[in-house]
Each structure stands twice: as structure tokens, then as C-alpha cells.
Specification:
By secondary structure, the chain is of the alpha/beta class. It has 8 helices and 11 strands. Helix 1 links the parallel strand 1 and strand 2.
């Protein structure tokens, strides 16, 4: 396995699967299966899940919600998704723990770097919920922050697209995929990989980002085995 410890960022929208809202049980089971496969290989796994399948604070504020309250709702949405994934991992027999950036025991333990690393080193998949605990920050930024804090070797961004393209491949059939790309190229070309705050944090801390299609079952294990899947973002 090419990485000992990873931060896996999952999209809330991807959890919808074929549904228009909420959580698709088949997609959830597929994610749990893929995660359990690499956990069995001894990989230490931290996970951050978005909440866009339930509520997104920024889009909510555009419809009249107070931004701070909207972002708080979005953070709670990530906790719902985290609990769902935790339950699916339980079924697979995987030890896991939900940590939240906002105190809400007994739903999950309050996050700290020391607690997260202790759990990782003891073989627990750690599901890191509620973003950074602050409004105005996306779960992409939360992922970058947590990846840096837990000293991950890389941040894996699981999406429904198999990498970074010159344009949106779902809209532009002529879009070309990058095998590798630099943080600066993402800025200069205006590519929407993650928000700029998240990308800058990864650049400043020399944290590689791997963008890949998590919706194709088996891709996560193939990636961890070193197969050239997705796009690697580095300096």
C-alpha cells in the first residue's frame, strides 16, 4: 500500500446515489465495503463527508437563510452522514468512531488531534464530522485541516468523476484528464477541484491530493495498491 494513513473526503451528493435527496443505501454499502477492504490491509483511515445531500449552507443562504445558521445546518448534515457511514461500517465488522467538531455527546466524541491519532493508531476508522466547527468554511477546508492535523500522507477526494479535467467532463465532451497537476495550475486555470482555502492549505503543508471516482467499486483499493487511478495534485 502506497500510503500508511489517509484522509478520505467523500461527497455528500455522491451518497444520494440514484436518489434525488438523502442517502442511497446501496451507495452507502458500497462505500463501507471499499473502506473496509483497505482497513483490513492496515491502512489508517480518517474520513470527512460533506452534507450536500441533505443541506448546504451556502445555497441555503441564497434562499434567505442566515449564513451562520445555514452553515450550522450543513455541519449537522455531515453528522447525519457520518453516523450512517459508521452504522454501515459496523455491519462490515470495522471498528470505527465518530468525532464531531461541535460538542454533541453521546452522538460522537468531541474532536481533538490527539484523540483522532490515538484512535487511528489503534485501528479505528475515524469519521470526522461537523466540518471545522465554524461557519464560512466548507467541508473541503475541513478535510484539508483534518488531513494536516492527523498527519495523513495524502488526502483522497472521492467524487463521481475520475480525476481533474481541463473542463467539466459532464458538460464538455472534449475535456481532457490530467494525470498530475500542480496546486498553482489549479489556481491559474481556474479549475474547481476544491475551494481555494482548502487548496492553499494543502499547498502550504505539502499535502498531496488524489482526486478519483469513488463510485466505481474497487477503485479505492486499486488506488491504494498504486494503480494510476485519478489525478494527483502536488507542488
Amino acid at each position: 500500500m502506497i500510503y500508511k494513513r489517509i484522509l478520505l473526503k467523500l461527497s455528500g451528493e455522491s451518497l444520494m446515489g440514484n436518489k434525488s435527496y438523502g442517502i442511497d443505501e446501496n451507495r452507502l454499502e458500497s462505500y463501507a465495503k471499499q473502506i473496509s477492504e483497505i482497513a483490513e490491509e492496515g491502512i489508517q483511515i480518517g474520513i470527512v463527508i460533506g452534507g450536500g445531500n441533505i443541506f448546504r449552507g451556502l445555497s441555503g443562504s441564497a434562499k434567505g437563510f442566515d449564513r451562520v445558521k445555514g452553515d450550522s445546518m450543513g455541519m449537522l448534515a455531515t453528522v447525519i452522514n457520518g453516523l450512517a457511514l459508521s452504522s454501515a461500517l459496523d455491519v462490515k465488522g470495522c471498528k470505527n468512531k465518530v468525532l464531531t467538531a461541535i460538542r454533541m455527546e453521546p452522538i460522537g466524541d468531541f474532536y481533538s488531534k490527539a484523540k483522532a491519532i490515538e484512535l487511528l493508531e489503534n485501528g479505528y476508522i475515524t469519521i470526522l464530522c461537523a466540518g471545522t466547527g465554524n461557519p464560512y468554511f466548507t467541508t473541503d477546508t475541513g478535510s484539508s485541516l483534518r488531513a494536516i492535523e492527523i498527519e495523513a500522507n495524502a488526502m483522497l477526494k472521492g467524487t463521481r468523476v475520475d480525476g481533474v479535467y481541463t473542463a467539466d467532463p459532464e458538460k464538455d465532451p472534449t475535456a481532457v484528464k490530467y494525470d498530475t497537476i500542480t496546486y498553482d495550475e489549479i489556481y491559474n486555470k481556474g479549475l474547481k477541484v476544491m475551494d481555494l482555502t482548502a487548496t492553499t492549505m494543502c499547498k502550504e503543508n505539502n499535502l498531496p491530493i488524489v482526486v478519483f471516482n469513488m463510485d466505481i467499486e474497487g477503485n479505492l483499493k486499486r488506488l491504494m495498491n498504486g494503480e494510476p487511478i485519478g489525478t494527483i495534485v502536488t507542488k
